[in-house]
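Same chain as my last thread, 104 residues:
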Amino acid sequence: MSAFVYILRCADGKYYVGSTRDSLEKRIAEHNSGFYDGYTAGRRPVELLWSQDFDRITDAIAAERQLKGWSRSKKEALISGDLNLLRLLSKRGAKTGAMEERKS
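reply #2:
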């Protein structure tokens, strides 16, 4: 079974990071319908900017937690696929963790 971590842009320009084991399309539709009364409910519509699939939901949740700790600049570097900028922005220097390794 697949799982996903994703980054959405909300109507107010803020980013939302989430994960799901459901279909990614279904989850985005739930965000846009206000199905869950959470962060995105009052910030609709949302737009999918980036996603990555994982074999295990535990890996997707770990990646979600990692991304939630990132600055907006790091998220934008990931979204644009600019791994050089992502490395530069990383506090750890040359290695940004599991997300970067899986992206390549």
